[in-house]
Queue: 4 jobs
Job 1
Amino acid sequence: MNRNPLGDTMNKDNRNQLRMFGRVVKFGAAHTEQFPDNSLGGRTFAALNSARTRAEAFTASQAAGRASARQAAAWKAAAVEALHHTVDAMIRTAEAIALDTPGVDKEFQPAGDKSTDALLETASAFAARAVPLSAAFIEHDMPATFTADLNACIQNLQRAIEKKEDGRKAHMDATAEITSAIQDGFDSIQRLDAIVRNKLAGDPSGLAEWERVRHLDRPNHRVEAGSTDQDPGPTTTPPAAAPA
């Protein structure tokens, strides 16, 4: 199902996953005798900590990208309204000019559809066509700066579109990094589950502690950097060994 990627932010499940990673890292720090730094277990605990740190580091840029895109969306909406206002005024005025100069109105027709791209294309064409007719438009009480105003509206909308896309890209890039880091963390958990169970096979209390720290409230939920009813976001599935 296609959903809006801007809804794709760190959600409760992601936070639970990172908290679980943190508990497991603390478990490793408390059992350095069994899992020294130079052992596979020690290195895997370090890799898990690195994945957790990486995911947390990208949450700020994910939120910033989302906020930027939303602000730009409001900017874009206002820019579209302003450009529509100017274009509509030119269409009405061209129809009036055509009373004296038949055919002028044919050069200033509404866009073929209501898309932003069509609006920009129409406005750009109007800006070029209005230059030789500027005196007639001004005579009909269009502002003396109407062509400059039209070009300014076009540029303003283009900047808003670019800003929104930049925010979306920053948000989605950060989301992908978070998803990747969480999956890397679950890969480490899967490896550690084998190592810890083997190492602590004769230690019931140690194994019980391991089961507790690696437990997730929703073990079968997909790993994803956020979920809403509107967005898909990149997803991964925790390895089967990770859930309790």
Job 2
Amino acid sequence: MTTIIGDAKRSIIVSDTMMSDSDSNTKDLDFRKVVKFKDGWLAVAGDVRNLEKVRRWLNDSTLPKPEIKEEFDCDFMKLTPDGLFVTDRHLDFWECVTVDALGSGSGIALGAMKLGHKAEDAVWAATQVDVNSGGKVMVYSLDYSVGKEYIRKAKR
């Protein structure tokens, strides 16, 4: 699936870039699962086919709320000037005032954060352990027009 962490205090979303397809038993190590929308950044964990549909809805308040079927389950995280918000496929966003994570590597990443690591290193740790997370570690801030790759410095 993925690993995505939102850090409300730092106003960032950090994500891996691996997308896996169990139907074809393939993976893409450079898939962007965080996209810009009019108010900030939107991230998806789970069925990525819903990402563009939800982005369109967030960009245009006249559109009806998209219906996401259970078999296409996914979770979303958005970062806006108003804060960090998460939701499931029902798209009823709630605010997160600390840290939250989405995806199969979320337990690993949240554990790393409990040990005092930054979100960037926490996602990196998940890419090293979780079979469904990998690729690059990308950081998204309201100050950025595009995501920035995080390069972890080797510890000695």
Job 3
Amino acid sequence: MGTEIERKFLTVGDGWRGRGEGVRYRQGYLSAAPGRSVRVRMEGERAKLNVKGPRKNHTNVEYEYDIPAEDAEHMLAELCEQPIIDKTRYRVPIGDLVWEIDEFHGENDELIVAEVELDSADREIELPEFIGSEVSHDPRYLNVNLCHRPYRVWKERAAAGGAHSTALSHKFEEALVYANRLHAWHKRKGSEIPYVSHLVGVASLVFEHGGDEEQVIAALLHDAVEDQGGRKTLDSIERRFGDRVARMVEACTDTDQEPKPPWRERKEAYLADIAKKDDGALLVVSADKLHNARAILADYRMDGESLWERFSGERDGQLWFYRAVTSELRERGDNELVRELDRTVTAIEELAEACDAAALE
């Protein structure tokens, strides 16, 4: 068993060309479950079988074996998912590191990705002049996903005026099914609406505001720990979808305890923790709060003061929490999603004031 620690980047310019010999790689996947893969690869004339586990903090557990080239050719042609990956790899030594530059062909033509393998996940490295944006956490650039959603698809969508370049993989499909099963009997407060409608709504907001696939998956699963199993469910999410998704779901959770601590205590702790949440998680948090606030506003207009009977903390507590969480999110960054949350919470507050005035007449 080996451990692979690597980071992945896009390239800028051609400064890497001529600094290393290229070897043609052809590879395909016999199995590609989320976070795990079984890969067959031809490296020039050499054939290998590779088994890779889920990524956590730039690190994968990995097994690799030499196999007969004839067997590999048969697997690539007859057993692997199509299209297979076709690329030329250039090894560029710089200092004590070796950068591997993959220039893709076929369905992924024009895509060039640079990878560097490290001896430690927290090692700081000096980036060469030809290195551009880091894409280590962007699942689109995983070879297994380039089989399902080739780079050509992104280009065609962009050329057709597509608003978003993220291509969703089978991991999203699994997350959607998993979320639906976890919340199968769960309804929205005060209604018969399946709870999954909220999860899909939050995921839609994350996607529309620039989220990547892992953020969208975290949006689908953001209530799973709090409402459907606590720490055991969080561990399951990490195994299925990786460490980054699990950490974002954890950031959306105000408790994993059962029974839950008192409502006000939970919310105060949650608010205090917003300053520590990373930007990826904040997008999911903001989308969740906006979707809930919009539902509260719509139901408040329809049902009046009886709405608050559904909620822990009742009216005063909910008004306090939504204003407080909006203020904390605005402290972290001013963006359209948070501004829309502010407008929605303000509309709820104005409606509450109008109801109070009407009650005095």
Job 4
Amino acid sequence: MSTDTETLKRPAPLHLNEDSLQQLQHLLPASALELVRVVGPAAALALVTTLPGVQVLVPREATASASAQRRWALLQDVVGSACMPALVAEYGGSVLEVPSCLAARQEQRNRWMRARFDALTGPLKRTKSAAVSELGIDLALAGWPMSYRQIETCLDMPDLTPQLHDQAADRRADADPTLPLFPVLGP
């Protein structure tokens, strides 16, 4: 890569952090907000980024069985020993479905793409085509491959603010539930 590209701050587009968690809380599922309430934002963020979408049977105690010991050690490594009592008090003996927070991750990625695109086409004077191509490479290396057209679509979208999110939810609520999601083709 060229030197000017390396000088740009290149945050990982897929990783949520405490700032983005706060900014994107309108996109978080209720289960993620509940995790924040139970173990705090740092531990909840650690769970969501380490075990997204995973179901974990939370042991009631560390020494119950060999599998409980493994799960206890895993959870303790992720959330920290200080948060384990709160996690066990709330979820011990039950399955914790760690939310994937896909909508927040996608919005985080899209905001990163728009900022990166602006940096590439502004100070670095890349063409649109070169900037979109570089974004495609960055995203593929980060584990989120996207086509040129998908990237262009994301670049044309505004940030999904709470107001826009509410408007979209209102439109979905007003939609006719009897209409099919996909048009029926053929005779």
